[in-house]
């Protein structure tokens, strides 16, 4: 959402309430079998993972280079932080704090590892 705002991207936003498990409807699972939010549907091209969505939006936007440079060394610096975020910061945050939130006892809003392995195996076969 922040990336879209910075880029001035015109999004048709649909909000799903994960506390009501609206991401688990057959309609949404058909669009994104990982049933994660955010999900971008660009005229039938569906992509999940917020960092990949942000990169796609930037690459699709005329002013995207400001935040996602085409120069490979500058882009590598951006990606370094994106990978740091998903690989170390975010996962530690989730592992440490998310399960403590009263909103989410036991990490119930995070799908179990088994489901992620199924998604991974589907994408490499
Ligand atoms: N690494 C993913 C995480 C996406 C994610 O787990 N989103 C949560 C909400 S913050 C979600 O959709 N949970 C519902 C579910 O997994 O069923 C990203 O950055 O997009």
Automatic annotation (TrEMBL):
Highest taxon of the lineage: Eukaryota
GO molecular function annotation: glutathione transferase activity
InterPro entries assigned to the protein according to its UniProt record, in alphabetical order: Glutathione_S-Trfase_N, Thioredoxin-like_sf
PROSITE patterns per record: GST_NTER (PS50404)
Transmembrane annotation, as ranges: none
UniProt record, GO biological process: glutathione metabolic process
Domain (GST N-terminal) ranges: 1-65
Name assigned to this protein: GST N-terminal domain-containing protein
Organism ancestry: Eukaryota, Metazoa, Ecdysozoa, Arthropoda, Hexapoda
């Amino acid at each position: 959402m922040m990336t879209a705002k910075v880029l001035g991207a015109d999004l048709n936003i649909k909000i799903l309430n994960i506390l009501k498990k609206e991401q688990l409807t057959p309609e949404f699972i058909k669009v994104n079998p990982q049933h994660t939010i955010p999900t971008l549907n660009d005229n039938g091209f569906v992509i999940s993972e917020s960092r990949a969505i942000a990169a796609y939006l930037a690459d699709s936007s005329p002013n995207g280079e400001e935040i996602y440079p085409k120069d490979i060394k500058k882009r590598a610096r951006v990606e370094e932080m994106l990978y740091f975020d998903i690989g170390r910061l975010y996962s530690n945050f989730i592992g440490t704090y998310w399960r403590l939130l009263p909103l989410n006892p036991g990490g119930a809003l995070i799908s179990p590892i088994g489901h992620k392995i199924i998604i991974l195996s589907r994408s490499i076969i």
